[in-house]
Design a protein that fits this description.
Elements (H helix, E strand, L loop, with lengths): L1 H28 L2 H6 L5 H23 L4 H28 L9 H26 L1
Length: 133
């Protein structure tokens, strides 16, 4: 029963930190289009910075609200940074193929966003599996 509570607590922490890292801070700290359009940062570097920021927020939340060891925290940080970068960079490459992607009235936007978020959630399920199984 205690392990089930820990899994649910970790799942909630993962969801909240994902929302903050992927939606709240992403547009306030690393404005998507401004950095790339002004050619201050290449898209690949912006995606990498986003992945590091996202993983840092994730680890901060996990550290604050669970009692997972530093060993697991470091593994989660690296694993999440790499997978988050790959998922978002693939989304960026697909986005470049679709000129109308940022049109919120098009199905392509919502399909790609849903696919992206599903992959992130699968990563979290894998993280929980690795820790508790």
């Amino acid at each position: 029963m205690q392990q089930t509570i820990e899994i649910i607590k970790l799942l909630i922490v993962l969801q909240i930190s994902h929302y903050i890292g992927d939606f709240v801070f992403r547009f306030q700290i690393l404005p998507e289009d401004i950095l790339v359009r002004q050619k201050k940062v290449k898209p690949i570097y912006r995606n990498f910075l986003h992945a590091i920021l996202h993983s840092s927020i994730l680890i901060l939340f996990i550290w604050a609200f669970t009692d997972i060891s530093y060993y697991w925290l470091s593994l989660i940080f690296y694993f999440n940074t790499i997978t988050h970068f790959i998922i978002d960079y693939i989304k960026y490459l697909i986005d470049r193929l679709s000129l109308d992607f940022f049109n919120l009235n098009k199905n392509a936007f919502w399909n790609l966003l849903g696919f992206d978020q599903t992959l992130h959630q699968l990563v979290y399920i894998f993280i929980i599996y690795m820790i508790y199984v």
